[in-house]
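hey team, just a heads up i'm posting the complex here instead of the shared drive bc the drive is being weird again. everything in one block, sequence lines first with there labels, then the predicted structure for the whole assembly after. its two chains so it's a bit long, scroll down
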Amino acid sequence: MNTRVVNVIVLLVIGLLLIALPNPQKLELKELHLPNHYHYLVETIEPELVAKMIIDDFGGFTIIDLRPASGSNLTKIDSALSLSLEEMLRRDSLLDIKYWGNLILVDDKLERMKMAAYYLSQNGLPATIMEGGFGQWAQQILTPTFPGDLASDLEVEQYKERLAISNFLQGKGDSLGGGVVIKKKRRILRRVVRQEGEGGC
Amino acid sequence: MIFPLSHHLELSSESNYLIAFLIGIGFGFFLEQGGFGNANKLAKTFYFRDMTVVKVMFTAIVTAMIGLIIFRAFGLINMDQIWINPSYIVPGIFGGLVMGVGFIVGGYCPGTALVGMATLKVDAWINVLGGALGMYIAAEVIPYTYTFWKSTLIGERITLPEYFNISYGLTGFFVILFALAFFGFSEVMERKFGNREELR
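-- predicted structure starts here --
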């Protein structure tokens, strides 16, 4: 038989075998059901704590922005990775996420954060959701509101700290000289002093 | 073991570059052996006189595709770790035209120009230097035309199976059919135009 005819037949057979190969099944969003008991199991973290972790350059954690790309364009957390729940379900494997450290999920919908946390936990990747989602992040961190004229000294101090965090995260500097920024400066200074002491730098 | 290895083994960037370098040397060697370091042979493609280049390229695509589909089906490769270029339609067409014109005028595409350069072909050296100059000019111009390069995005990561919502295996089968049809077309064209006077 002509070699070319053989080649064509071999390629066609390979092609037909490809069709018969198993196709890894992917979960559709509508197929993902959250068990009732999971609502009480999901761990949460306050936006303020997340903000401090970012400023402190805490490391070992990754913030995942679950909103679809169009939504993510509105307001962003600078260090967050954009990975919508739909994209997460479409992935062949979540293997690489294992290396992202502790996962903090953020979205503007609580249910979606819980579903993502549940899906990740089912795949052996425990995740924490941001309390109140993006709404609370925007309210507390991006645009903190003054507690009012009758606020106690402690509340004013807290407001100043939030404002300093907000300014820092939005690149507005530390014009108010807020506590967090000062603490960060002190920490950097300590690190430099320590490194110099160790003969580093 | 799951591919890509770099992710699993946490290789340093130096090791990654070394592996890429060795694979590149092998790739270049086989391109040269296939006659891809000869601008005359490459240019004949555009006149349907010698379709070896596109046949080899298509064979490479089909081989790699079959490997990827089989590896994926058995969970041996994590496709999410494979980089896929975002699809910007109009800039893509424009870039393709620039590349095509450059190829037909110079006789080399960037990869084959490097292969020709390795065997000290003067035209390949000129081609590579021209390419470097072109890159420099493009780098200077792109910031002013950035809106254009980022226009008509249809997806950050589009693959045929996802776009047509069919399985990877079926996509592979259709690509093989297309490749066979293309090989047949190439044979017909070579028979029709191949015997004409050689290009000088």
